[in-house]
Amino acid sequence: MTPPPSEMHIILLIQEGSDPKTRIWSDHCSVRSAIEYIIGVYSTGQEHPNREPMDISRFYTFFDDIYDCVPLVYDRHFRAYIPHDKQWLLFQAQEYIKTNKPVV
């Protein structure tokens, strides 16, 4: 099934540690949704996730500590999922945070 033209489909593969049992995946209809998912994973590990602004340096440390993270982005032209690296996703997260999240 092809996503509507206004949307993008992303399958996010994350392995939090070296143990293969830490592998998780999720699918999203936009980059924004994938980033919000990662921020949610980060926030669940915080003491008071809803009371404080997001500490950007702690988020980047969390993101760097993820063992492996691969976003597979559907490309309508090739009719295939194209893998991107962790740095691509970090750039997307930085852009999202600049415009959407209060930071410390």
UniProtKB/TrEMBL annotation:
SUPFAM superfamilies: ERH-like (SSF143875). GO terms for cellular component: ascospore-type prospore nucleus; cytoplasm; heterochromatin island; nuclear exosome focus; rDNA heterochromatin. It comes from the Eukaryota. GO terms for biological process: nuclear mRNA surveillance of meiosis-specific transcripts; regulation of siRNA-independent facultative heterochromatin formation. Belongs to the E(R) family. PANTHER family: ENHANCER OF RUDIMENTARY ERH (PTHR12373), ENHANCER OF RUDIMENTARY HOMOLOG (PTHR12373:SF0). This is Enhancer of rudimentary-like protein. It comes from Schizosaccharomyces cryophilus (strain OY26 / ATCC MYA-4695 / CBS 11777 / NBRC 106824 / NRRL Y48691). The lineage of its organism: Eukaryota, Fungi, Dikarya, Ascomycota, Taphrinomycotina.
